[in-house]
Amino acid sequence: MKQLILLAVFFSGSAAIAQHSKDQELSLxxxxxxxxxxxxxxxxxxxxxxAGEKLAAEYITGQFKKAGLTxxxxxxTYLQPFPVKNDSGRTGHNVIGYIDNKAAxxxxxxxxxxxxxxxxxxxxxxxxxxxxxxxxxxxxxxxTSALIxxxxxxKKSDLKKYNYILVAFSGEELGLFGxxxxxxxxxxxxxxxxxxxxxxxxxxxxDSTHSMSVGGFGTSPAWSELISRxxxxxxIKIDSSGTGPSDHTSFYLKDIPVLFFFTGTHTxxxxxxxxxxxxxxxxxxxxxxxxKNLLTATNNKDxxxxxxxxxxxxxxxxxxxxxxxxxLDYTFxxxxxxVDVATEDRPAAKAGVEAKDIIVQLGEYPLEDVQAYMKAxxxxxxxxxxxxxxxxxDKELLLPVTF
Length: 403
Ligand SMILES: [Zn+2]
Fold this sequence. Notes:
Blueprint: H1 2-38, H2 51-67, E1 70-71, E2 79-83, E3 91-99, E4 106-112, H3 137-156, E5 163-169, H4 177-184, E6 193-199, E7 211-215, H5 222-226, E8 235-239, H6 248-252, E9 258-262, H7 281-298, E10 326-328, E11 337-342, H8 347-351, E12 358-362, E13 365-366, H9 370-377, E14 385-392, E15 395-402
Parallel strand pairs: 4-5, 4-6, 6-9, 7-8
Antiparallel strand pairs: 1-3, 2-3, 3-5, 7-9, 10-11, 11-12, 12-13, 12-14, 14-15
Bound molecules: zinc ion.
Zinc ion (ZN) binds next to α3.
């Protein structure tokens, strides 16, 4: 009898393992299919507002439907169109799926699916001859594929304490346009959002270091309980800040706790060489497993608290000697640059610059837009003092600033 029970346990155990590995195989297959499709030349680098973006949005919509997610975009569709300001007539499309568990609060999972096209928007790092498709396999077909995979899993799971919004943003490469629009036009009240997880470039996990960045750690006291610094399977690089060069920033600025998963930059970043054959698919599966555990853990917790963080202004693209220490609203059409956040103890804040100010001149340089600001910044040295001209409501202020 005892032997029979042992056998039964053994078989059920190995059946569970077999099922688990079968599920893993299925996931792996789906992730590979999604990354290869999204990074295919046919989608021409998925630039916001193009036919390539449309093909990608159709694919994501199809996957959300297949996973059993309902539509939460505009007019009961999966799409949320948004204008690309200072580029008249150009429209981007967020893709929004929903798992309605009839709960009071909702968790948002997000990833941008747009990329650079042929590098027309001056955000390519490619310096070679001729126009080339920037396939964006890691940036961010990987995050988008992980999002789709989590949709399949969540819908089948018994995690019912929260509803789940899964949103694939567009317009990220232009300056977080899609996520900013979503945060300003959220289909559910922002106060009902528990937290937001952003996945941007999760496709290049280094197999020897297993190092993964987790941003937003300081945006809720709950994260220090849920994310261990000495995780067994990952070398976790903690970044406390709620802001950074990706879509979680738009939610953090609405006082929503965020987490940002990122496997690091690489030599193909924002170049045509960011292709599907360089993706670490098993690494992606691992990261998705980590996020599944996190979602399972928060399913036993009440809504988590929000904490403000110190902003660090690292941009993958910033290589300046000095900065003002401001977070900008990249969707502002100008003239001038619109300050979202003036970080404490940084040059601008010390000079008296405040959030919602519009900086129109730096020293002798008028600031038409962000490009003009970047250009002007490169003219200054550490320790130098100059004047900032700021528009605040109908007033114009001249403030001395020291870098
Ligand atoms: Zn990206």
